[in-house]
Amino acid sequence: MPDRTHEFGKYGARGVKGYEAVAHRLDALAGYIATPVTARRGLLARLHYLTRSEHALAAARSAGLTVTDRTLKAWLDGRRSPSKKNLERIETAYRTVRRHNVARYLLARLNREGRGTRVEIHPLNQSQVSRPRQRVVEFRTLNIRHWDRIVEAWASDNIQALDDAWVDQIVDLGSQWGQYEYVTNVGFAA
User: Fold this and answer.
1) Axis crossing angle, helix 40-51 with helix 84-111, rounded to the nearest 10
2) Nearest Cα to 93, choosing from 75, 108, 111?
3) How do residues 52-62 score in pLDDT, each as one tens digit?
């Protein structure tokens, strides 16, 4: 059984950790607001999302948006603009609340009542590695049936738990799973 890679990129290989690619794909499936928070439209969309109900506002406050109701109203009315630090807090709170809200839906779609979802794993990029040091790493597919730990770790933004959950899934690739710790892309749909 292979161990974790310790000196990735030493000979010029490029890629990202598999769990980072999975998190990026789950973020794409979450459907965030495309307009940046620095634009008035993007700011208003995020603020409306975070203040549409008492439950949403409570979740936003627990996610780090700790301004008063008066300040929120001033931002919504356009009388004041948030500082750069508050814009970052708004974006962080929005992403946290959005992840939490869509996690259950994504989990149901990915698990598909026990049938799971087919995942395409694109191997690391070895174009900058000298020819004698290159290894044969082919494109792989894997059917993941239990997404619970992956989605839960993604929704709570727990990087270590997401990494552990991802490695537990790719172990199903057999003795070659260590070759897919770093990848160029992980693709799946929900």
Assistant:
1) 60
2) 75
3) 999 899 999 99
